[in-house]
């Protein structure tokens, strides 16, 4: 196996070399990638040259692929590949320009949850030699470990509600947003769901603080005031810089990140004429976890 995993000198991340993601992979390579993603939180595969078919082939190795509820045109060859971009073609947007701007966990508003997200950096804005539009990560295994014991005890058996509409409305409230309100059909497709706040990672088995300011709306069984207080405490804790890593893009990078282990945030520090284009596949956790009605396999014991 020519694949090599080189851990970054930081709390998260490793670079994987010796693998062309346009080619098929061996079972041993896949196993190493699956475990490395859980160990390091995200993996960078530099110098890739992929078509959408290659992205779908690689991402599908880890679980089924989601077609996002916000994707209105599904009559395309690869609706599982979402375009994130600020580029206009003939005055028309070619993708979601404000996607992910704010700390969140993809698909926490869903049952089942997502395992991983694959991003492909097609166009990266650069100013004065510095790449813009970092993708930031926050380590929720470390954040859980660093919680005070009394908070760990308090949340051990609590669950939170997650609602897709919360993040959508936060994006709509930003200046210049042209997102329409969700339709009744979209709300029906993604109703709020409930997940335990402490989850055991299905691969690493580490405990994860599975709560995020993007989608978590309330804690089940508490009064609204108690719920707000505890959520704010958790949000403040998990967004400490000591848990952060800011990933700087190079064009043709593929990023595969663990969506249970990490929160992420897209940094909007580039302007309209500074073009950015990422392609994305969302991998559900159905391959690593056979979900029961309560998702009990992944929840901490
Ligand atoms: Fe996201």
Describe the overall structure.
The protein has helices spanning 27-40, 52-59, 140-145, 149-155, 164-172, 184-189, 224-238; strands spanning 4-7, 14-17, 42-45, 82-85, 88-89, 92-93, 114-123, 126-127, 130-131, 135-139, 159-162, 193-196, 198-200, 207-209, 216-219, 244-247, 254-258, 262-266, 277-284. The chain has a single domain, classed as 4-Layer Sandwich (Double-stranded beta-helix), CATH 3.60.130.10. The longest helix is centred in the last third of the chain and has 15 residues, at 224-238. The strands form six sheets. A seven-stranded mixed β-sheet has the order 1-2-3-17-7-19-4, with helices on one face. The protein has a three-stranded antiparallel β-sheet with strand order 16-10-18. It has a three-stranded antiparallel β-sheet with strand order 12-11-15. The protein has seven helices and 19 strands. Strand 8 (126-127) and strand 9 (130-131) form a beta hairpin. The two termini are 37 Å apart. With 301 residues, the protein is of the alpha+beta class. Bound molecules: fe (ii) ion (FE2). Residues 100, 104, 106, 264 line the site of fe (ii) ion (FE2).
């Amino acid at each position: 196996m020519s694949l090599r995993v080189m851990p970054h000198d930081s709390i998260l991340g490793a670079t994987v070399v010796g693998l062309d993601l346009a080619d098929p992979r061996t079972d041993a390579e896949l196993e190493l990638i699956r475990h490395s993603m859980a160990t390091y939180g995200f993996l960078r595969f530099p110098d890739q040259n992929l078509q959408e078919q290659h992205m779908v082939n690689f991402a599908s190795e880890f679980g089924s692929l989601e077609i996002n509820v916000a994707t209105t045109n599904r009559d395309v060859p690869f609706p599982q590949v979402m375009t994130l971009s600020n580029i206009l073609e003939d005055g028309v947007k070619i993708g979601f320009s404000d996607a992910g701007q704010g700390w969140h966990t993809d698909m926490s508003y869903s049952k089942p949850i997502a395992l991983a997200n694959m991003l492909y950096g097609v166009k990266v804005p650069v100013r004065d030699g510095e790449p813009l539009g970092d993708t930031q990560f926050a380590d929720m295994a470390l954040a859980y470990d660093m919680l005070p014991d009394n908070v760990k005890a308090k949340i051990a058996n609590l669950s939170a509600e997650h609602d897709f509409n919360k993040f959508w409305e936060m994006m709509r409230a930003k200046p210049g947003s042209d997102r329409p309100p969700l339709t009744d059909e979209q709300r029906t497709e993604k109703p709020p769901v409930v997940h335990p706040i402490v989850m055991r990672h299905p691969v690493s088995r580490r405990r994860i603080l599975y709560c995020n300011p993007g989608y978590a709306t309330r804690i089940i069984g508490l009064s609204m005031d108690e719920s707000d207080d505890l959520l704010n405490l958790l949000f403040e804790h998990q967004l400490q810089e000591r848990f952060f890593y800011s990933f700087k893009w190079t064009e043709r990078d593929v990023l595969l990140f663990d969506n249970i282990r990490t929160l992420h945030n897209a940094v909007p520090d580039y302007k309209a004429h500074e073009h950015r284009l990422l392609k994305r596949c969302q991998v559900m956790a159905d391959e690593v976890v056979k979900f029961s009605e309560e998702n009990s396999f992944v929840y901490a014991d």
